[in-house]
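ugh ok so i messed up the first submission bc i forgot one of the chains. this is the corrected input, ALL of the components this time, i swear. 382 residues overall. if the numbers dont match what u have on ur side tell me asap before i send this to the collaborators (the ones from the other lab, u know who)
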Amino acid sequence: MMSSYEPQNETALVCAAQKGDKQALARLLENHWAWLKGLVYNVLGGPEEMDDALQNICVLLIDKIETLREPERFRPWLAVLARRATLNWIQQQRRQPISWGDPAALQQKGGFSESTSQKVEQNELNERMFEAVKELPDKYREAFILKYMDDRSYAEIAEILDLPITTVQIRLVRARRMMHNRLTGKQTNKVPRT
Amino acid sequence: MNREIMEILIGKYIDSEITPAEQRLLDKELQVNQEARQTLHQYKQLHDQVRAAMNSEINEHGKSCREIFDKAWEQRTVRRRRLIKGWGGLVRFTAGMAAGLALGLSGYFLLPKTLNNETVVKPTELVAENTPPKPPAEVKPIIHRKATRPRVLRNVDWYNFTDDAGDQWWVQGVRENAVSPAVYHGDL
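and heres the new structure output, hopefully the right one now
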């Protein structure tokens, strides 16, 4: 699914939001909501408390939108703000970020889908999927989640993570290969070199 | 084509980022390479599974964007009102202090200094004043100064000058091009 993202309209929305237009700001958030959730999910390590963290980000965004000097760079600016806000929020809540290498903690936090309507097979597959995702190195996992959360293009992911496009391509290739190896049972602890 | 390039092309194809030239290259490789076809199939399957898992895990959890945003907007509005209320009293106090200080300083510097503890009554018209006789003014004695030798001035030059009558004069010249009158101790 491709997001309906139009840069020109977004710049106009940012300018309107900076002047205090609530609807423009809400529209901006809706356009970027999917990858924002993915970013917060990546930092928090699970879906719980995502709403609280996102609300904290929204409050900061409302306060800080006027400080954005280049409206066309809204997305990377929002990415930096969201990441910092989530990390600060975690510290304020007096808890450590969940280590992705801690399956027990993830399970206690209910990191896996508990929907009873899903088939057992699908649940098991999802479980294995998230196990494989959490074993990815941080930099690969970040790009991987952003890709699969909102189906963003390489250029958009590069802008959010402040990386060259080729680096994003390589990281996604390596993440896929590691996921595939993990799910097919080819255990390897090394980062596959390209 | 090596495996690395093949995986990059397959990844770009799955992510819909492949260019037409790269697509032709990949099609050519897929026609001759069984491993490439297998890898494409596996990665496509993985892509669909991961997307479904991520969707169920994240997107189907939690409140909607609009709901969270409205709550955040309300939270910020309440916070702002509290801030204004809290700071309003302090602002008023500070403004009052500043106004009082300004008034006090202006009163001190601008108003005439007659408002002392004792009120001064200005006499309307003075005809005569009964004042005690003043003692005679002290007369300072005249001090006759003895002729003294002229002080020796430093940083001066002396010039010998003989006038038409044959009298010799010593002329004192200050080094800053200032000439002061000479003192003559002759018999005039």
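quick check: The beta strands of chain B are 156-162, 168-174, 178-179. that seems consistent at least. The CA atoms of residues 24 and 143 of chain B lie 126 Å apart.
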